[in-house]
Design a protein that fits this description.
The complex is a heterodimer of chains A (113) and B (219).
Chain A: H1 3-20, E1 26-34, H2 41-51, E2 61-67, E3 70-73, E4 79-81, E5 97-101, E6 105-112
Helix pairs in contact in A: 1-2
Chain B: E1 2-8, H1 11-27, E2 30-36, H2 42-53, E3 59-65, H3 70-76, E4 82-86, H4 95-101, E5 112-116, E6 133-139, H5 146-149, H6 151-156, E7 159-163, H7 175-185, E8 190-193, H8 202-217
Parallel strand pairs in B: 2-5, 2-6, 3-4, 3-5, 6-7, 7-8
Helix pairs in contact in B: 1-4, 2-8
The chains are: A alpha+beta (113), B alpha/beta (219).
The structure holds guanosine-5'-triphosphate, magnesium ion and zinc ion.
Chain lengths: 113, 219
């Protein structure tokens, strides 16, 4: 629901990084988005495209790499994948588990010239 | 040219939240970020809570709403310092919005600072603002499946206040299943069942808050 403010942060970070590298035009911005990060990819791309005008990212493409959720069971140590939200580990039915992936929201690469 | 960066997009918010935290620590403020869906009873709980503890600890309030000042006016009537933030459409408060109103509050005279977040059961949980405690309200009328359908806020919160228990006789939802669903999502939640209308259960919540404020002072 707050994709617009996230898109604005992405543009700000990308423009900063490109400037630091001495570039003027950003071609692509690649981000990693966990499927449990609470972010709608389409809404994010839509907001990015609306906000990028009149910035060095005006022609940039936002590429999203989806990250599927993963967890570690605190009982048996098994690393497991899951879908959606879980409240106990699938192996031991234990509430003692840690989610290790699936909530990331980060920029990994910018292509600029 | 390809530029490798690993940059968490929420990091800008985290940095400002950290600055807020330093300001709060310097002034000795214990800060509670109060979240819930619209109408669960954030302002009403604040009014009742402040009435009960304002003689024992100096209180201040930051009110977050999409638009309007009605909640800040209700709080201001109690004679405590309050500042209103209007998010102009944004569904949550972020650290920067809090940062921008800090100078409008007499922080050195406040021990316990409440932040009433925008009414929304999802987004506010994503943004730290520099608080010491996240507390959330679920009113019994919202239904006992809510922790399972909107888990993030329940997972992020230290305290769950189940409000409007005076309405239970009129509803199908029951307290035990709300509580057990919430604990399934977050086993370490502190749960208080209250009615802001009758006052039932409020003392336990207020004492818990005061104890947290005390603990903060002594370390
Ligand atoms: N029956 C009953 N009604 C309550 C209780 N607590 C609050 N209400 C009512 O619920 C309505 C909404 O309460 P508010 O305190 O304004 O809710 P809020 O969470 O601050 O709402 P927003 O700021 O709009 O998100 C009001 O009409 C309150 O009088 C309660 O314990 N029992
Ligand atoms: Mg309110
Ligand atoms: Zn949001």
């Amino acid at each position: 629901m707050h994709e617009a403010s996230l898109a604005q942060s992405i543009i700000n970070i990308a423009v900063d990084e490109a400037k630091k590298a001495g570039c003027e035009k950003i071609k692509t911005v690649t981000i990693r988005v966990g499927t449990n990060a609470g972010v709608l990819k389409d809404a994010l791309v839509f907001a990015f495209d609306a906000l990028k005008e009149d910035t060095p990212a005006a022609n940039a493409l936002l590429q999203c790499i989806e990250v599927q959720p993963e967890g570690v069971c605190g009982e048996c140590g098994e690393v497991f994948r899951f879908k959606g939200y879980i409240f106990v580990s699938p192996c031991c039915n234990s509430p003692e588990f840690r989610i290790t992936r699936g909530r990331e929201l980060e920029i990994v690469e910018i292509e600029a010239e | 040219m390809k530029i490798r960066v690993v940059n968490r997009i929420l990091e800008a918010n985290e940095r400002i939240a950290e600055q807020n935290r330093e300001v709060f620590q310097r002034h000795g403020n214990f800060v509670v970020n109060l979240m819930s869906a619209p109408g669960a009873g954030k302002t009403t709980l604040l009014l009742r809570t402040i009435e009960m503890l304002k003689e024992r600890v100096p209180v201040g309030v930051i009110e977050g709403d999409i638009t309007g000042t009605t909640d800040a006016e209700r709080i201001g009537a109690l004679g405590v310092p309050v500042v209103q933030i209007n998010t102009d459409g944004a569904c949550h408060l972020d650290a920067n919005m809090i940062n921008s109103v800090l100078s409008e509050l007499p922080l050195s005279e406040i021990r316990l600072l409440f932040i009433e977040n925008v009414g929304n059961l999802v987004c506010p949980a994503e943004f730290h603002v520099g608080e010491d405690m996240k507390a959330m309200i679920l009113s019994v009328a919202e239904g006992d499946d809510k922790p399972l359908k909107y888990p993030l806020m329940f997972q992020e919160s230290e305290v769950l206040v189940i409000n409007k228990i005076d309405l239970l006789p009129h509803l199908d939802s029951d307290l035990d299943s709300i509580r057990s669903n919430a604990l399934r999502v977050n086993p370490s939640l502190r749960v208080f069942a209250v009615s802001c209308k009758t006052g039932e259960g409020l003392t336990d919540w207020v004492e818990y808050l005061l104890k947290r404020v005390e603990d903060r002072k002594s370390n």
